[in-house]
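Now read the record:
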Amino acid sequence: MSRAAVNRFIAALADELSRLRLEGAILLAPSNRVGASWLDQAAAVAGVAANVRVMTPSRLLALHALPGLAEDRLARPDETDRLAVVAQALREARSGGGDGYFAPLGQPLSLLRGLDRTFTDFARAGLTDGSVLARVLRPRERGRELARLYRRYRELLAGKRFAMPDEEARFAADRLRDGAATPVLLVPADFFDHAPPGGLALVEAWPAGRRRVLEVDDGLPDAAFDFIAADGGMNEAREAFRRILAGRIALDRIEIVVFGGVEATARACLAAREAFGDGRVPVEDLPLTFESGLPARFSGPSRLVSAWLGWLRAGAGPAGLAGLLASGLIDGGEKFPDASTEHMARIFAALPESCGGGKPAPAVRRPESAVDADALRGLDALLADILPPTPGDAGAEGMLLAARRLLTNWAAVGGELDGYARARLLEDRFIAGQATPWPGFDAAEWLAGLADGLQLLGRGPQPGKAHVSGPDGGHAGREFLFILGLDDGVFPGGGRQDPALLDAERARLSPALPLAAEAGARNEARLRRLLARRRGTVVVSHSTYDLARGAEAFPADLFGELARSVDGKTVRAAYLPGRPEKRLCSDEFWTDALGGRGVVPSPESEQAYFPRLIAGRAAESARRSDVFTAYDGFVPDAAGIPESLSPTQLEALRANPQEYFFRWTLGVTPPGRPDGERGRWLNRADRGSLLHETFYEFQRQLTARGERADLARHLALLEETLADRIGHWRREIPPANATDFELECRDLAECARVFLVAETVYQKTARPVHLEAVFGMEGRNAPWNDGRPAELRLPSGRSVRLRGRLDRVDETESGGLVVWDYKTGSPAAFSAADPFKNGKLQTALYAAALDSFVRPGGGRVVASGYFFPSPETGGMRILHAAADLEPVREALDRLAGLLEAGAFPYSPKPAKSHDYAAIFDAAGGADRLARQAMRKAERKGAPAALAAWLDLWRPDRPGGRVSTPLRKTL
């Protein structure tokens, strides 16, 4: 390689290598792989690169500190050691009372890691005692608590013979002062711009005669530029590979730098799979090397851990495990040689939901064949391995053990990437059993972070392969450099402010403390230095649309500056390639051809490339017919009334049977929707749970005392109860900021006060007798129930078993029972005149359920209703007489008929189809599906259950009629 082809830095490094020859030297670099690339380029010029080691600043510091650490018998703590120490310090602060800032938040992993980073920054900046925190931070209580935590953190580390970063720096400096033999240190001149404090101090202390500073390029790059504005980040990656293929550029002349983290690396992987194998090539077999490694999401074992955690969170039921077995992520090896995992999945999917949570499969179903018996043995062994023995904090070790067994005994390994992933996961100290979880350790959170955060198979540039690197990359010296992700939402970026210590507070404490605001400036400076070194061709791209936010995106300032300062054209990149020679894969060939060239694929090509299109045509034809088919919701294989149903399920079935089928039969959870509550501490569901817990505990204490609610006597008790529940939820969900938390607490206090004012009046004529009584599920059983579901007899002779939880049952002065359900939202969807408005069934179902348990002479249900304790409603109550609720049995009978027939038609009221809108839109849209459902249900010869269900939507049926207003019953 000629000197004209390299930049000033590589030329300076080559000169030093020529002078050094056999003398030992250290090259300081941001990473080992970057330093190795520098040496390769310089050696090609100098012809030699002997006795030169690449070191990062942290590695150089550790190497020189090691003799002093060994002499004092100190060790360097890893993250696990430090997090355990932070957790212990927080526990001690909580038990000692603390100042109420950090200790009450509990021990979420994010808080532990945040405090660990903060304390490490303190040590590197030379803040060793923390006393300055109490003087500088406001309010002072926060400063005092943070100072105590930091002092205790250092004491605990010292007690375990671990060294802090400031001690490492001291040991390293002492070694240099001792006159130990020092090799020549080669330092890029731009190292001093953004060097870490410890590394900078060590380099500056290096003997001047043994330190060589290598000049670097600055200013505009000496390279040819092109610019791309792409419709989305995925199309940025596609356009890069389109240019590579269309230009027939040798892959080992290419480096691709991606901004945007793991997501951006994943997009590069997916685009490469399209370019080099129609999307079917395993990621590790692509002709690419990844400097930071491949995202863990591409490995089977990591996906298995994530899927397993999701299954446990969902209740560990049969349907979820059947899906896990069918995913291909589980391999039983020799455990069940006669049965495949697919066969196991089919058997387990057929088991009743009650066998979830670890009940042995053979005890639930008798094998019908030898293969069945083998599959059930395999299921038994699988459940024994992957179900944690105990829940909650006490089960952390059990859950980690289950994760180890899952990975060791059941994880499918299909290649190099899967093998590395499993090995890396099993090397984790907690999974391996080499570290003991601290009290309060959240094993699920830890395992989820491991599965999502791994980077695997990181490698330097190799012959015949393109090289993909992150923001620290771009140093491979290759002729063609693609830089992806220069839109203003990604670049230059910047770290999130430390919630324990904001930037303004850090600046007041010490100029050596790193600031989040500086991260973006460092990123931009790093890229400018990289571009100044460039020779050859640079392609810079940005996205014009942010898919995550669903909004337009704009180029970063540096993109615009480059576009104005250097020659180069900007082109647009979309999903379709535009030119035949830029097609990446067969899918793009067909999409491009069919979209603009009038090409009609042959039946053979259609079968090979568009099997889903053929299936879609079959579905469309079935929907257009007059027959009620599987594509309209007719699924006889799913026929049958479940063992028990909740009011939520029955209301979903009443509103839209297809949504019920997706959610409750298939277990397809709809994507979460924004609740429009920005600036709030808790979402609606959590806020409702907190208030329910408060009302329950408050009324429980009054009942135990034999007292009825009274505003003057009991306001303090209610406020104390609310404060206790707020403290609990604050530990579970730390608030983002103090302002939102304070406003939320005020709002909760107002709701509690409205509750007590309304109860003071109401309890003069009624008294609560049962609180949060459950039936058919785990919880607090009332005296009249032994845990079994409520069996409701229906007009046709059918019966439905109901499960649920009654917020409260009151007894009136006349001995009648009233069921109440607390509602913390708006009453707009409810009606005092019509108990079934908008398909509401809950009050009627609860009244019928309670009445089925009450013995003669023990009181009958006279009414059921909703209580809205909020300032907006003033404590409104909507109550319905038992007689007005009786039509629910007729509605329930028709819904049970649907379940028996396995018929799940679309709702005639399309406004209910919001949760699964994407699925329904793909089938033609809500209005069209509603018309089809009505037409097929009314057709002569339609299933009787379908016609009976449609009758529910007529004006004279429950949910369509107006019932008699409630007479005064209290």
